[in-house]
Specification:
Largest sheet: 7 strands, mixed
Radius of gyration: 13 Å
Helix content: under 10%
Structural class: mainly beta
Distance between the termini: 40 Å
Number of strands: 11
Strand content: over 45%
Shape: globular
Oligomer: single chain
Length: 122
Amino acid sequence: QLQLVESGGGLVQPGGSLRLSCVVSEAISRYYVIGWFRQAPGKEREWVGCINSHGGSTKYGDSVKGRFTMSRINVKNTAYLQMDSLKPEDTAIYYCSAVTTYERCPQEVDYWGQGTQVTVSS
């Protein structure tokens, strides 16, 4: 049973940056694909992106493409979401997730983190 813990959320001004971290509990996490999602108040959960087990392949949702960048350091069991040029509409709870294969992301998720709040406001 994998456990995922996000951190790094907070309040940032429009145009600013934040980096979220997702620490996974087990060393076998290096074999999992990491997906990022977000959910704004009153809205459905939205897919942000997926990064494959080696970090060599990524795919992004249209709303964040060109502004957000995913990475991972498997020896640290940690994935990252670098968010630049943030907009007020990026305000949401951000979740990381794990799934066994790249093809299943984002349609399926095996494990969820608890989420971290990101607020973009002046």
